[in-house]
Amino acid sequence: MSDNKNSIYSKSVVFTVVVAVAVIIGSVITAFVPLAMKDMHPKLDNLKPYTALQLAGRDLYQKEGCFNCHTQTVRPLKADVLRYGEYSKAGENYYEHPFLWGSKRTGPDLARIGGKYSDQWHIDHFNNPQAFYPLSNMPKYDWLASKPIDIEQTKRGMDVLGFPYTQEDIEALKSRTQLDAMVAYMQVVGSAVERKNYVAVLPEDYENAQNPFKDDAASAEKGRVLYEANCFFCHGVNGEGTNIASGITDLVDEYTSDGQIFVDVANGLPGMMPEHINIMTKNDIWDLVSYCRMLAAKQQASN
Amino acid sequence: MKELSGDSKIVLGYFYSGLVWGVIGLLIGLLISVQMWDAAFNFGEYFSFGRLRIVHTNVLAYGLGLFTIMGLFYYIVIRLTKRPLLFPKLAVITMWIYNIVVLAGMITLFMGLNQSLEYAEFEWPVDLGVVVVWVLFSVNILGTIITRKEKQMYVSLWYIIATIVAIALLYIVNNLSLIATLGKSYHLFAGLNSANVEWWYGHNIVGFLFTMPILAMFYYFLPKSTGLPIYSHRLSIISFWSLIFVYMWTGAHHLVYTPLPDWLQTLGIVFTMILIAPSWGSVVNGYMTVEPDWSRLRTHYLTKFFIAGITFYGLQTLQGPSQGIRAVSALVHYTDWVPGHVHMGTMGWVVLTITAAMYYVVSKIYKVDIFSVKLANTHFWLVLVGQVMFSITMWITGIRQGLMWKSLNADGTLLYTFMDGLVGNYPYWQLRTVSGAIFIVGMLVFLYNFIMTIVKGERALASNR
Ligand code: HEM
Ligand code: HEM
Question: So what's the ipTM on this one?
Answer without folding.
Answer: 0.95
